[in-house]
Structure formats: structure tokens, C-alpha cells
Specification:
The protein is about 30% helix and about 25% strand. With about 325 residues, it is of the alpha+beta class. It has two domains: about 170 residues, Fructose-1,6-Bisphosphatase, Chain A, domain 1 (2-Layer Sandwich); about 140 residues, 3-Layer(aba) Sandwich (D-Maltodextrin-Binding Protein, domain 2). Strands 1, 2, 3, 4, 11, 12, 13 and 14 form an eight-stranded mixed β-sheet that branches. It has a six-stranded mixed β-sheet with strand order 7-6-8-5-9-10, sandwiched between helices. The longest helix is centred in the first third of the chain and has 16 residues.
Length: about 325
Amino acid sequence: MSNTITVPSSQALERILSLEIVRVTERAAVSAARLRGHGKDKASDQAAVDAMRRELNNLPIDGTVVIGEGEMDEAPMLFIGEKVGNKGGPKVDIAVDPLEGTVLCAKNMPGAIATLAMAEAGTLLHAPDCYMDKIAIGPGYPKGVIDLDAPADENIIALAKAKGVKPSEITAILLDRPRHADIIAKVRKVGAAVALISDGDVAGVIHCAEPKTGIDIYLGIGGAPEGVLAAAALRCIGGQMQTRLVIDSDELRKRIETMGIKDAKRKYEIEDMVKGDCLFAATGVTTGAMLQGVKFGKNVIETETVVMRSLTGTVRRVLAEHRQLEKFHLD
């Protein structure tokens, strides 16, 4: 009789959750932070990618990268389809953005993070590195308050009604891009405020679920990889999100077909992008509203990481002091 015990993958995720995935984003963040303010966005991204890949390959998982670093930034990548882990554990899907906010890091501006999501195999949306239209709010609202296909002003009015406030008390966050001029005008037309961010798509969505930020709704077009990562975070902490891939070329249409996406115009909700139990972790590279950046001391490196799990709704903040500095100098 075999003594082998089969452990459900969700339980396996529990075993590798906290410190294991935290180490991955910590190493990526520290490696990127060494180049803060040097004006080298691609080099800092490369450093984060290399560190994250090394740490992922130490994990007891049989992982596949389904959301990877993107061609949009012409950056080095943990490519879609890449196998990671030591094959000694469960099959999992991996979504990564080793350095979200490459420009923020290069300019030493607030909000750069290293982030990763992990889920049971076959449960993360396999999205190409393209643009994605998004709308998101935090938890506590009735289903259907927002609609990706409704004008921005109508969404603001509906959200204000659900929150029990005037539209003037609603704040929307958007990437500061020319393509959002019409959305910004409609938001301001009904009296709502606009918070513009230069980068930081994932953090921007998460801000909607954090009362301390004062952000109520995320609107606009950003990256599809960042959209899936943000959906993983909201899957853990609550909220609503709707997205649609922006497929604007024959090349992209062919690519999504090879990835198994049959309907290019499909509207996705959180449960469509992240179907099973998932983990999410992010470590600050530069200090922002969500996380403290990496601090380099004489004999210690300090990091702050948030790690979440959807099955339990647990959110942990890990303030770490790293004293085995020789290991970090290998990154």
C-alpha cells in the first residue's frame, strides 16, 4: 500500500504562501532599488527580473508564467510560458511584474513596486501583453454598481449614490495619458476629483480598496498583465473590477487565438481573470501610498511587503530586516 498523501493544491498554496513568495518580491525589489534615481529604467527592470527568476526557481512549485514581463516597455522578461520552480510541488500559474513603475524607479519617484501573483494551475487568465480597458472599485458595494460600458460620468453618479455621498466626494484615479482626456472631462463635469498617476497600474487599482488612500474608483486603459495582477489582489481583499482587452491589430488577434481567447470583445470580471485560490505579494521599491521603499543601512536592508490570500481573505504586512547582506549582493 502506498504511503503517499495527495495534498489538494489549495493546501499546497498555503504551505508556500507567506515567506516563500515574499522572498521573491523582496529580492526583486532590493535589486531594482540599487538603481533608483540612476535614470536606467531598463537596467533596473532587468535586475528585478533576474532576481525574481532566481527566487522563483528555488520554490517548491511546478510553475508556469502566464502573465509575464512585456514587450510594451521593450524590457527583458520572464516570458509567457516560461517554466519556474524546482518541480517539487503543485502546478501553479504565475503572474509577475518584477518592477511595476520602471520610470518611477529610474527617477526615484513614489510608488514603484515588485509584484507577483500565484494561483492554482489553469485558473489565471492567459492574457497577452497588450492594453486593457479597466474599471474598479473597492469592497462593500452591491454587485453591478459600475459598468465598463457606461460613460465615466454615469459610473461616478452611480458609485456616489451607492456610497451615500455627492459625486463631488468621489475621487477617480487614472493613468496620466492623453488617451484619458475624455474620461477626465466627464469625471470633472459631475464634480468628482481626479488623481493622476504617471505609472503604477496595479497599485492604482488596489488603492480603491484601501480607505486611507481616499481613492474610490479606477478608470481607463492600462496594461493587461497589470490588470490580471490587480484582479488577483482584489480577489483577496474584495472589490469589483471589469476589464476588456484592447485588440487593435491583426497580430494581436492571432496571438489571443493561440492563447485560447475566442472572444476578443469579452468583458471580464475578477472571477473570470482569477478563478481559483490565489496569492498576491508586492514589495515596495520606492516609497508610495501603499508601501515603504527599500531602505539601505550600513548593516541591514529593510523592506515592506504586503501578502494576501484569497481563500482566507488574509492580508499580512511584512516589515523585514535583512542582515545576510552577501545574499542580496548576489542579485
